[in-house]
Amino acid sequence: MNAKDLRTDPKRVTRSLDKTQIDALREGLLTMVPETQTQIGTLVRTMRLASRCSQKEYARLCDVSPRVLMAVEAGSTKVHVETLEKLLRPFGYRVGVVRTVE
């Protein structure tokens, strides 16, 4: 049984998985979820620089205030998912899940 089998299984919860099946699902997660150490602010700043925009221009392009963009790039604020979606949209990215490397 793999992750796809569980998604299509009509049961809501499968509690009868053995250790081998659980290990296989966990291994599947490792291939489904990429790994990164890049901070959001660094990513957004790199995108902005690649677009050759000032903070004011990129903020206008993304429909956020320059103050919010500045704070995100500096890493000095928590970013709402909706705001992050706006900042990533010009490059065709969306918010997702990644593994952390510790």
Tally of DSSP β-strands: 2
Could you name the CATH class of the largest domain? Answer: Mainly Alpha
Q: Specify the number of helices.
A: 6
Q: Taking Cα atoms only, what radius of gyration do you get, to the nearest Å? A: 19 Å
Principal-axes geometry comes out as elongated
What is the straight-line distance between the termini? 29 Å
Work out the helicity level: 40-55%
Structural class: mainly alpha
Following the backbone from N to C, one meets helices and strands in this order, namely HHEHHHHE
Average pLDDT value?
A: 82
Cross-sheet strand order for the largest sheet: 1-2
Contiguous uncertain segments of 5+ residues: none
Task: Report on the biggest sheet.
Answer: 2 strands, parallel
Number of domains: 2
Q: Do you know the CATH topology of the largest domain?
A: 434 Repressor (Amino-terminal Domain)
CATH homologous superfamily of the largest domain? Answer: lambda repressor-like DNA-binding domains
Q: How much strand?
A: under 5%
Second CATH tier, the architecture of the largest domain: Orthogonal Bundle
